[in-house]
Amino acid sequence: MTEDDPVSDADHVDDERVASSDHRSDGGRRRGSFAADRVEPVGEPVVRADPAVTGERAREAVGFDPDDPESVARAAETVRAFSENTVGSEDNVYMLRGAAACAALVRGVGSYKEAAERAGGDVSVSFIRKWARVHDLPQAVRRHVARGRIAPTAAKHIARVSGPDRFDLAWAVLDGDLTVREVRRVASEVNDGRPVAEALAERDVTLGRLDLSLSHHQYRELRRRASVENRPPGDVVDEALDAYFED
User: Fold this and answer.
1) What is the pTM of this model?
2) Domain DUF7119, which positions (predicted)?
């Protein structure tokens, strides 16, 4: 496989870091406290096993348990097969399974280096690290990968940034039609210290701008209230969402 994103200095200093998780969910209406990393158990097919996202393929979802030697062995086999069959693949669910195998293998053996050795073949530390980071993305982002709205190759670059910037970059892909190359460049700029909003603005993407469709009743009332209160409709929506997410 051809690695299409540059390896940063940060990629070299954390080879022994192993993805961790707990048993919470990052769904729901939490405000201000949502996690920018995966919070479900490593290897668990939370998104892939959801029929609302993957349809009938949910029954085929395979999980990997990093605490089960046999499951770790299956993960190693999956990683090797995945590394030999990713170029040009349009099967997003398959890519997420490969990412899960990478993360579970790392967790199971204790390091990226050992994971690459267990997988064998031409599997590299860089390959495993990149895809394990995709598995570490929050569920809200992974669901869009499974739906086909965010390309797995774009997800690799989204996973290179940390914190809320991950969400900003992911939503920019959805609302700003960023290409994979643009996502890669924005991720590199953000990691170099540039504010994500500034990097996106240079590519004509404004954070916070979203096209929505409302029912006729809600649209009529929104326009009426905004006019009476001498406010832009966006301010009224923002205030309403602020109260909604506080619940």
Assistant:
1) 0.83
2) 65-205
